[in-house]
Amino acid sequence: METRTAIILCGGKGSRLGNIGKKLPKTLVKIHSKPILWYVIKNLEKNKFNHLILPVGYKGKMIRDYLNRNKNEFSKLKIDIVNTGIDTSIATRIFKVKKYIKSKNFILLNGDAIFDFNIYKLFNNHIYKKIDITFLGNPAQLPYGVVIFEKNRISDFKRDIIFNSVKKNEKKNFIGYVYSGISIINKKIMNLSFKNYNNFEKEFYPKIIKKFKSDFRHIKGTWYSIDNQKDIDSLNEKKTIKYLSVSKILKKLNAKKFLEK
């Protein structure tokens, strides 16, 4: 099988998780009795990614130990676990592991989100169209109250609405779509200098967009980012829609034979 690489960022401290984040890395937080990392790896495997790079940092030994204990379950995958330092920036973590990338194009994603969509199709589209970087976007939940206007009159008030785009007051033709934290990248972009960036996304991506061929694709499926205790509770609480959604993902990934999309 052709080698397809994915970099799973999993070295952060998970400071917004409170006491949970003090005990274990965020990517090992359990949702329906399975660590988030399990969902990430299994979905990548289902989408034909067979080479994974994990730049670990905070409590990286726990991640390494988890994978070693479950090596039979991930036996078909080549997994490179690279210690990139506890207080290292995301830019430096990526810089330290870029030499391990084996495929011409690869996926960069966070290790703190549960998802289920056809990455394989998006990856092939990226290659076919010879795109240098493809950003993947998905609707997200707004954690604020929103006053609803219809026909220039207030019609309602809602909290936790789902949105997928934003507008900017200063620019009439501006529209921005929510970025999922997942991108498909041509390896040649990694030749640029970015090691010392304080904020990888804010400093690196604007330069890439100006210099290279970029694209944006909406995710058609499930994507749940897990940032705090509320997100964990929502995915584990049986009365929520999110619980049912993750239950379906869990059942699918636990099947003896993955379903092909």
CATH homologous superfamily title of the largest domain: Spore Coat Polysaccharide Biosynthesis Protein SpsA, Chain A
Based on the coordinates given, report the CATH architecture of the largest domain.
Alpha-Beta Complex
Radius of gyration from CA coordinates? 19 Å
| CATH class label of the largest domain | Alpha Beta
Coarse structural class = alpha/beta
Q: Could you give the distance between the termini?
A: 18 Å
Structurally, how many domains make up the residues? 2
Largest sheet: 7 strands, mixed
- Strand elements, count: 17
Low-confidence stretches: 257-261
The number of helical elements comes to: 8
Strand content: 25-35%
Envelope shape: globular
What can be said about this structure in brief?
With 261 residues, this protein is α/β, with parallel strands linked by helices. It has helices at residues 19-23, 36-46, 60-69, 90-97, 119-128, 200-211, 229-236, 241-254, and strands at residues 5-9, 30-31, 34-35, 51-56, 78-83, 105-110, 113-116, 133-137, 140-141, 145-150, 153-159, 162-163, 165-168, 171-177, 179-186, 214-218, 222-225.
Provide structural commentary.
This protein has eight helices and 17 strands. The protein has two domains: 5-137 and 179-254, Spore Coat Polysaccharide Biosynthesis Protein SpsA, Chain A (Alpha-Beta Complex), CATH 3.90.550; 139-177, no CATH class. The protein has 261 residues and is of the alpha/beta class.
